[in-house]
Every structure is written in structure tokens, then in C-alpha cells.
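Dear Dr. L.,

I hope this message finds you well. Following up on our conversation about the binding site, I have prepared a predicted three-dimensional model of the protein together with adenosine monophosphate. For your records, I am including the exact sequence and ligand specification that went into the calculation, followed by the C-alpha cells. Please feel free to forward this to your student if that is useful.
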Amino acid sequence: MKLIIFGPPGSGKGTYSIRLKERYGLEKISTGDIFREEIKSGTVLGKEIEHFLKEGKLVPDEVVIKVVKNKLKNLDNFILDGYPRTVEQAKALDEITKIDAIIRINAHKEILIEKISARRICSNPKCDGNYNIADIRKTVNGVDYLLPPLLPKNDLVCDKCGSPLIQREDDNLKTIEERLKIYENQSRPVLDYYKSKGAGRVPIIDIWMSRPPEITVEKIIESLNQLKIK
Ligand code: AMP
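The resulting structure of the complex is given below.
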């Protein structure tokens, strides 16, 4: 199974892909996680890309494509989280492999901002612990959102590894606005690219981030079953 999870920052891509990874035994490839780990470890790549993440800007295509090419070597079962984010990256991916489906997550901007501001992640770069302290119950343009917080069992400590929870450096209001703008201008066209591929089209599963992850993930699984993707 070769999947892409696609959506704006804050739409829960990381949370859903962790659950899909566990359900199907997939390799989860998150370019954001890879870059954060490189920065934390102080590698040459980390130093080169640090300012892009800090400012909420995209890392140049040639750098990202090289990293993903390396990761995807000989992999048949994966979910890509945060890649492709530009049409160039999507074209490069076409040359590496054939994707079975794109899971596209939708949410309104005000919900995304609330979610990103309330996100807490595990400080251990080897752990994918991911939490959210926002309690969202409201209707936006006819969409009912019911998103209770995703809290750890013990205050500010990761359930999976016991490390302290932190806020991502780029989860501040200024950077969030920049990332949302970049999503609209550079990443949204990736969907049109996939839609315009005619016979070779990749199926797109459209999902709203309006219910807790366990419900949303079940909807994704139902759609994958309907498409007979295994
Ligand atoms: P994420 O964890 O997916 O929100 O990504 C965090 C940051 O990493 C982004 O704001 C970008 O600076 C960088 N990044 C992650 N994936 C990509 C990508 N596919 N292309 C360019 N930059 C990326």
C-alpha cells in the first residue's frame, strides 16, 4: 500500500498517519519529522534547512526530493506525510513510484489555527507522541466540528516514552499564517496536478477533520476498502 496524506498544516495528517501506520504496518515518512530530527542532531543538512522551518517556508525542492528518494528506496508499504508539497515534488515522486491513493484532509482556516496553536509534541525526536489541548465544538460554514482534546495521561509527559511535551518552534501565530498561505499558493495545486492526470489518475479520498481521530480514521479505512487498496 502506497499512500499520501495531504492537507493544510494542522489538519491532523501526523495523527491520522500514525494510526494508519499501526493499522496496516506501514512505514510513515514525514518530511517535517525528518527535518526536525536533522536540525536537532545538528547535521550539515539540519544547519542548511533550519531557517526554512523557523520561518515556515518550504525547504527547496531539490533538497526534499533527494531525501525522499533515499527513504523510498525499495519500500512497498508506506504513507507519505507532508510530501509532496509542490507540483515539482509530485512530478519527482511519479518517477520514483506509483501511489495507490491520496487521502485529502479538509478543515476551515480558523479551526486549523486553533489546532496548531494547541499542538504539543514529544520532545524525543525518536518518538511520534502527538497531543492537542484544544477543545473544539462549533459550526463553521455549515460544518459541525466536534474535536475533543487529545491529552496525555500525565500532565505534559508523553504516554509513549515519558519524555516532556513541547510546542513546535514553528507553531506560533506568525509562522502559522505563513504556512497556511504557502499551502494555498504552492501545495493546493498538487491536487490539481493529480486530478489532471487522466487515465493514470490517483484516487483521492476526501475527508473532513470534523470528528475525533478514531472516527475519521475509520472513514479513511472504509474508503480504502471500497477502493480495494491493500
Ligand atoms: P510539517 O511537520 O509537515 O508541518 O513540516 C514542517 C516544516 O518542514 C514545513 O513548514 C517546511 O519548512 C518543512 N517541510 C516539510 N515537508 C516539506 C516538503 N515536502 N517540502 C518543503 N518543505 C517541507
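In brief: The chain has one domain: 2-108+172-227.

With kind regards,
A. P.
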